[in-house]
Amino acid sequence: MKKAMLVVMFVLAIAGFVMGQNWSSPVDVLGAHNNGGRGCAGCHAPHSGSFGSGHGGAADAGSYALWGQDASPLYGKTIAFGDGGKYTELLPSSITSGSQEIGGILLCLSCHDGQFTPTNMMNGQSYEQRIGLLTNTAYGAKPIPTLLGNDGTTPGNYTNDHPVGQLANISTTMPGLTFNGTKFTLVSPSPYATFVANYGYPALAPGTWSQPFGVTAGGKPYVLCTTCHNQHVMTVYTSSAASPINNDGGGKWYATYFFVNGPYNPMITPDPTGKTAPSTTQFCRQCHFGESNESNNTNNILTQFQ
After folding, report:
1. Which of 46, 84, 150, 237 has its CA 20 to 30 A from that of 61?
2. Taking the model in full, what pTM does it have?
3. How close are the terminal C-alpha atoms of the chain, in Å?
4. Nearest by Cα to 131 from 44, 235, 232, 41
5. Model confidence over 51-91: pLDDT tens digits?
6. What's the Cα-to-Cα distance from 89 to each of 80, 85, 150, 156, 225, rounded to whole Å?
7. How far is CA 103 from CA 108, 110, 140, 195, 234, in A?
8. What are the residue ranges of helices labelled H in 95-165?
9. Where are the domains positioned within the chain?
10. pLDDT 10s digits, 229-272
C-alpha cells in the first residue's frame, strides 16, 4: 500500500511538471498591486504624476512612467543590504537621472520601504497570505512582511534583505552563460544550457519589454528588484521564445507567487522520491548556479512546477 502511494504521488508530481504549462490564476493577476481598489492609477497616475494621486513633493516634479507615489524621501539615500550591510546602494538623486536604479529599485522602494517612507497604503503583510491563497503550513503562522526596513526586527534593518544595486553583481563566469557587457547569451551544450532545458533563466534572459537586470558603467550586471519580481503580474509567469521554460517554445503559463519573475510555486505537493526539484528552488539557481544540480554533474532532475 505504501509503495502504491509513493507511485501515485510521483505520478502527481510529474503531472504537475506537465500541467504547469497551462496554469490559470485563481485571482486577478495584478493581485496586491490593485492598490486597494485604485488599480493601475495607484502607481501610474494618468495626470500630473505623484501630484495627481495626492502625493508628491518638489523633488517629484519630474515624470517617470506617470509615477503616482512620492519617491522624494528616498533620493540620495544609502541603504545597506544583506550580510551585515556590505552591499550598500546609493539611490539616484533624481527621478529623471536615467539610471536603471530608478525603475528597478527606487520606485519599488517608494512603496515598499518602511525606513525613509514609513507612511503608505500597505498593511505590511503578503497579499497571498492575507487572502488565503498561500496555505502551505511550512510558511508558519506569522504575517509575511512587505515593508523592507520595517519588518518587525530592528528599525531600518535591510541586512536581512537580498542585496540589490551596483554592488550586487551577477556572476559572469557560470559555465555556458556569457555576458558581453549588455546581455547574457546561452552557450550550448553546457551545464547552464542543461539547467535552462530543465527549468529556464527568466531572471537573466531578454525580456519582452526590457532586460531584467542593471549594468554598471564598467559593464558588470547587477541585481535590481525587477530582476526577481514582475510588478505587473502577481500569480502567472508567461514564457516567451526568448525566455522559454523547460524547452516549451514560449507562450505557456506557469504558477508563481509574490510577483516573482519566473515559475515559482510554493503550493506543490513535494515529490517524495526527490527526483524532481521545486520551481522555488530552481528560480534561485539561475544566479546561484553553483548550488544547482547541473553544476554538480546531475543532469536528470526535472522541475516540478505544480
Report:
1. 150
2. 0.91
3. 25
4. 235
5. 888 877 777 766 676 888 888 889 999 999 999 999 999 99
6. 6, 10, 18, 14, 12
7. 7, 11, 32, 29, 18
8. 100-101, 107-112, 127-130
9. 23-38+75-304
10. 999 999 999 999 999 999 999 999 999 999 999 999 999 999 99
